[in-house]
Amino acid sequence: MTTGISTGTPGDAGRRYLFLLANTRPGGNTELLARHAAEQLPPQAQQRWLRLADLPLPAFEDHRHEGDGAYPEPTGHARTLLDATLDATDLVIASPLYWYSVSAGTKLYLDHWSAWMRVPGLDFLPRLRGKTLWSVTALAGQDPTTTEPLVGTLRHTAAYAGMRWGGALLGNGSRPGDVLRDTDALARAKGFFAA
Predict the structure, then answer these.
(1) What is the pLDDT of residue 68?
(2) What is the DSSP track for 155-168?
(3) Domain map of the chain by residue range?
């Protein structure tokens, strides 16, 4: 199961991939599929792996309509995620399908984009333009259309931010390790990041 076609040129030297692991179970099917795809990246491509559960963010508070609507510079885990996001040329959201959408950790991370784009002088959205956003997910069922809300969320996020949409790599797996038996997904993973 896959949606989208790779549109970037990720084999180029100087590419920096940020893999955001948004699963609640270390070594889960989504992570296994993402790591399988990443094995195919050229040696010159940098990889950084961050687990959102290890970098908990506070609940997002909407201050857009208070005062000048500006947010302060992020600190702590938010700063780590912000800096990693801006440093990457390619952002890979590895989120399992939870209730037909992205995981709660992914949603909270994206909610914080609303704050980061309102930090004076940060220029968050302009600095996202031209980066590529990718999606990797595992689903427990056999119907790939159930991933449409998840894929739509990330595809629309890319469009809003002026990013390229790299595509979505889907695999099937419920119990730990199941995705490694999804030979079709593993085959697609081999060429997922290829131009």
Answers:
(1) 85
(2) HHHHHHHT-EEEEE
(3) 2-60+68-191
Reading the block at residue 59, the tokens are 């609940």
Helices (H), the chain: 29-38, 76-87, 104-116, 124-128, 148-161, 183-191
Between CA 25 and CA 27 the distance in angstroms is 6
* CATH number of the domain located at residue range(s) 2-60+68-191 in this protein: 3.40.50.360
Q: What is the DSSP-derived secondary structure letter of residue 98?
A: B
Determine contact, residues 148/4, Cβ cutoff 8 Å: no
In this prediction the pTM is 0.91
CB atoms within 10 A of CB 7: 13
Give the per-residue pLDDT at 177: 93
For the stretch 139-153, pLDDT in tens is: 998 899 999 999 999
Residue 149 backbone dihedrals phi, psi, to 5 degrees: -65, -40
